[in-house]
Amino acid sequence: MDKRKVIVIDDVLSVDSIRTFSENHFNNLPIETSRWVDKGNQPQYITDLVKVAENYFDLSTAVGYEWWTQNNSYSNKAWHYDADESNKETFKSPLCSVIYYPFVAHLNGGYLSTEDVKIKPKTNRMIIMAPEIMHRIEPYNIEEATRWSFLLNPWNYKLEGTTPSWHIKEVNSENMVK
Fold it and tell me: Fold for domain 6-164?
């Protein structure tokens, strides 16, 4: 694992991938809460993000990815860790946390803050955090701004309580895609 806690990378994806994000997750669509996709069954743009994260963190034990979106959905969430919220008995964190901003405009504030750094959201910026990094989103001008984020947590076990990703193609008993 990379010793650095937080990695920030700009200009991560191609213009076509950004467009795909917009069309599939943000253009006049509601926010999507905790979804799950098994490793190997994810769409290409999630694979592209995972490949970048693999340059900094060992994701070889990942069996799948929890993901969700935020579209100007600031909720004044307090400082928190990304964790398996279905497991109330023990604290378990993902292999890393990925925050990707496909589009940001007219934003004042809205920084991603950790105990050590504040990071400004920016179009086509990816932030990768080591497990157990406390973080929060600072207030921002939600009425005027556009702040889209796609959040991805690789896990080494399948989470309970997540909704299967709509990307998954259902296969029947004859192994035919429906």
Answer: Jelly Rolls (2.60.120)
